[in-house]
Amino acid sequence: MTSYHVTFFGEPVTRAWVTCRSIKVFKQHDTYRKFLNDGKKDPTRDIVLRKAVQEACHAISMEVQHRRKTYTFVAR
């Protein structure tokens, strides 16, 4: 099973090893609702997820080198 080490958007900065099955494609016009797939209502999680998607939308428009400098775990 292949895993990737990822840094998550949002605060506090977190990272984890994630399997391929847990990774979803992100496109600039996605909304946080696309990533709510468990049917549970959790207002705190929804706020955190909304902010993370906003941050991802900002990041996706950056040049790759600038995005790496801004969002890698070491930079944050």
TrEMBL record:
Gene3D superfamilies: 2.30.30.140. Coiled coil: none annotated. Residues 3-60 form the PWWP domain. InterPro entries: PWWP_dom, ZCWPW1/ZCWPW2. GO terms for cellular component: nucleus. It holds the Pfam family PWWP. This is PWWP domain-containing protein. It comes from Scylla paramamosain.
